[in-house]
Design a protein that fits this description.
elongated; 96 residues
């Protein structure tokens, strides 16, 4: 999906629904992957890199925190879903 959006933008095609899909899918998939990794590693996976007992130099803990930020950085995922509904599926705008 990401490569398609990049290819379209290179050709002057702008589809906000596709860009929003990439953002929502990417950020939420990354969180799911890191949750699974933390389940595998266990409690030591949430230990920060500067603390004793940190596994993988604290990379799991750090990246899990960073990807949580991605759910609202660059546009809150709930709003991105509304863009997908309106621009991609032709649904009416959500009343506020």
């Amino acid at each position: 999906m990401n490569w398609r959006v990049a290819w379209e933008m290179d050709r002057g095609i702008v589809n906000p629904a596709n860009a929003s899909m990439v953002k929502v899918f990417g950020s939420e998939t990354a969180i799911a992957i890191y949750r699974l990794l933390l389940d595998v590693v266990g409690a030591s996976g949430i230990v920060r890199d500067d603390s004793p007992g940190a596994v993988l130099e604290g990379a799991l803990e750090f990246n899990y925190r960073q990807f949580q930020i991605n759910t609202f950085g660059g546009g809150v995922n709930e709003i991105q879903r509304e863009i997908i509904a309106m621009a991609g599926l032709g649904m009416p705008r959500v009343p506020r």
